[in-house]
Design goal:
GO terms for molecular function: oxidoreductase activity. There is one protein chain. Strand 14 (about 180-185) and strand 15 form a beta hairpin. About 20% of the residues lie in helices and about 40% in strands. It has three domains: about 20-125, Lipocalin; about 140-230, Lipocalin (Beta Barrel), CATH 2.40.128.20; about 255-410, Glutaredoxin, CATH 3.40.30.10. Strands 4-3-2-1-9-8-7-6-5 form a nine-stranded antiparallel beta sheet, with no helix packed on it. It has an eight-stranded antiparallel beta barrel with strand order 10-11-12-14-15-16-17-18. With about 400 residues, it is of the alpha+beta class. The radius of gyration is 24 Å and the shape is globular.
Length: about 400
């Protein structure tokens, strides 16, 4: 009996040693397994002590710090991207050569109240490699007029490559928002771009045809696939985002929703009074909305009491307490303190459209409504072109501030 107990103890110790994270610090090449192939992103790990780690998700020039990194009792390294209700759980695969150590695990994210995305993941330390090219790669640089098979709306692709490494970066702009920071590579006549930000896992592939056009595929995690085509067009632009969604009511003050404490609140509440009133229709689960949240903080810092912002959130579960927790995480992440009302417990745009009776339709998260001090609607902006879009982001900020300045002037 004593021998059996000793064997069990030794076996448990060996198992623990095999699963405890002892990975090297540095940049890891992480890959999520998708139906279209690996969705690659960078995973940067740093350790300040035996049990204290920090981590960043790396997509091209963007590095997103992971809010919580903990070593679990089972030895797994758990990366919690709490603001998206998302989690990576990693375990080390031990090998004789430390330089060949790999990580494996899963990514899990809530989609709805009782629905989750779950994908397997593996990672290896990034090693410097020379591009393996049998021929000089074709150029994918520049602006492209893009057509996604699931949509009649226009889209624009912006790509730029590094001639020395054949690393490709860029994004897609659409009338509902951009696909944020994408990174990948070019090999001969084919390109690949991907990203993982804790909420979305995207993979774009395309081949350049003899006529210079592109034919490609797009996968979003393991839940969506569609095709896309593109042609070069240096003048490719999206339509004016201030002209895509229209007001169907003269005033915002008729709307009423519960706040985060479940108290019914009207938009004509005196607490929301200001010369310029901004209604931010969003979801805490939405990366474009997080880009917008960061910019709203900048606007508040610039204009102070001249503007008031009220968020109307459409969340994932319909559980008022849980949805309020996620909204508070969103606000905390961006240093925001404006009030938020819960428009609904579903991300369905159809249901959001039914609730938002002041506009013709909710086509995008976020959608931003600008009103004057009396609540009269002055402008509605659809979607958000964030930092990854470069000049488009600069133009968006100029447009927002022009509307604000115009309302301030008209109030005089």
């Amino acid at each position: 009996m004593l021998r059996l107990r000793l064997f069990a103890f030794l076996f448990a110790a060996l198992l623990s040693a095999a699963t405890t994270i002892n990975a090297q610090e540095g940049l890891w090449d992480a890959q999520l397994d998708s139906p279209g192939g690996p969705i690659r992103f960078g995973l940067k790990l740093e350790r300040s002590s035996e049990e204290h780690w920090s981590a960043w998700l790396v997509n091209g020039s963007e590095q997103i710090e992971v809010p919580s990194v903990k070593l679990a009792d089972n030895g797994n390294l758990v990366l919690s991207i709490d603001h998206y209700d998302s989690q990576l759980s990693l375990v080390q695969v031990p090998k004789t050569d430390v330089s060949d150590t790999s990580l494996t695990g899963t990514w899990k994210k809530r989609r709805k109240a009782n629905q989750w995305v779950e994908m397997s993941l593996n990672a290896s330390l990034v090693k410097e490699q020379k591009p393996d090219q049998t021929a000089a790669p074709l150029s994918f640089d520049g602006r492209w007029k893009v057509k996604f098979s699931s949509s009649d709306s226009p889209a624009v692709g912006i790509f730029k490559s590094d001639a020395k490494t054949n690393v490709l970066s860029g994004t897609f702009l659409t009338t509902t928002g951009d696909y944020r920071f994408l990174a990948g590579s070019v090999v001969e006549d084919s390109m690949e771009l991907s990203c993982f930000d804790g909420a979305h896992a995207f993979l774009f592939k395309a081949k350049q045809n003899d006529d210079g056009s592109l034919t490609g595929d797009f996968w979003s995690s393991n839940t969506w696939h569609e095709t896309w085509t593109a042609t070069r067009d240096k003048d490719a632009q999206l339509p004016d985002s201030f002209q895509l969604t229209t007001a169907t009511a003269a005033n915002i003050n008729t709307l009423s929703f519960p706040d985060l404490n479940q108290n019914e609140t009207r938009l004509d509440d005196d607490r929301f009074a200001a010369p310029v009133r901004i209604i931010h229709i969003f979801g805490s689960w939405c990366p474009n909305c997080h880009d917008a949240g960061k910019y709203l903080a900048e606007l508040k810092a610039k204009y102070g009491n001249k503007i008031s912002v009220v968020g109307i959130a459409f969340e994932l579960t319909g559980d008022a307490n849980r949805d309020a927790v996620q909204v508070r995480k969103y606000l905390k992440r961006h240093g925001l303190d404006h009030p938020v009302l819960i428009g609904g417990g579903s991300s369905s745009k159809d249901k959001a459209s039914e609730a938002m009776t002041i506009i013709d339709e909710v086509r995008s998260y976020p959608t931003t409504v600008f009103a004057n001090k009396d609540g009269k609607i002055v402008a509605v902006h659809q979607g958000f072109s964030g930092p990854a879009t470069g000049e488009a982001y600069t133009a968006l900020k100029s447009g927002f501030e022009a509307v604000i300045e115009g309302i301030l002037t008209s109030n005089k």
